[in-house]
């Protein structure tokens, strides 16, 4: 009887304890940062991507709003960033947030496009460990001269 209990403990209880402590595969958060050269509040054909911008993922406890996780990354030459998040953040609300632009002429965060909500849990039915944040943008200090022509493309006839 003792051997049966030991086997049951070894094959059922120990693996479940190990699985509970293991957070699973890490998530890879991907996104991009652009310069809104027309100050439109969205990407246009005139928008450029910003290399060297600093982006951060911030997670806060859902109930207390206490900051529980922070990790920063820098965009590559195409304005893309990747942030590896090691743990499941199921009890948190997480956002990708603009921190700093590398372009002094395009350094004002665009309100409403300066952060992007991201889901960093495996308990939501998504099987992939890739997570994608909406593009975030900075506003150019002075709009390009060609912006009026670009914006005409968005007008109804």
Sheet with the most strands, sense and barrel status: 6 strands, mixed
Q: Give the SSE string.
A: HEEEEEEEEEEH
Secondary structural class? alpha+beta
Radius of gyration: 22 Å
Report the average pLDDT across residues.
Answer: 88
Number of strands: 10
Beta-strand content estimate: 35-45%
Helix content: 10-25%
The shape is elongated
- Contiguous runs where pLDDT drops below 50 for at least 5 residues: 14-22
Helix count equals 2
Distance, first to last CA: 84 Å
Quick description:
This protein has helices spanning 2-21, 147-152; strands at 27-36, 48-49, 54-61, 67-74, 80-85, 92-100, 108-109, 115-118, 130-132, 136-139.
Your description of this structure?
This protein has 157 residues and is α+β, with helices and mostly antiparallel strands. The protein has helices spanning 2-21, 147-152; strands spanning 27-36, 48-49, 54-61, 67-74, 80-85, 92-100, 108-109, 115-118, 130-132, 136-139. Strands 1, 2, 5, 7, 9 and 10 form a six-stranded mixed β-sheet that branches. A four-stranded antiparallel β-sheet has the order 4-3-6-8, with no helix packed on it. A hairpin with a 5-residue loop joins β3 and β4 (67-74). The radius of gyration is 22 Å and the shape is elongated. The model is unreliable at 14-22 (pLDDT under 50).
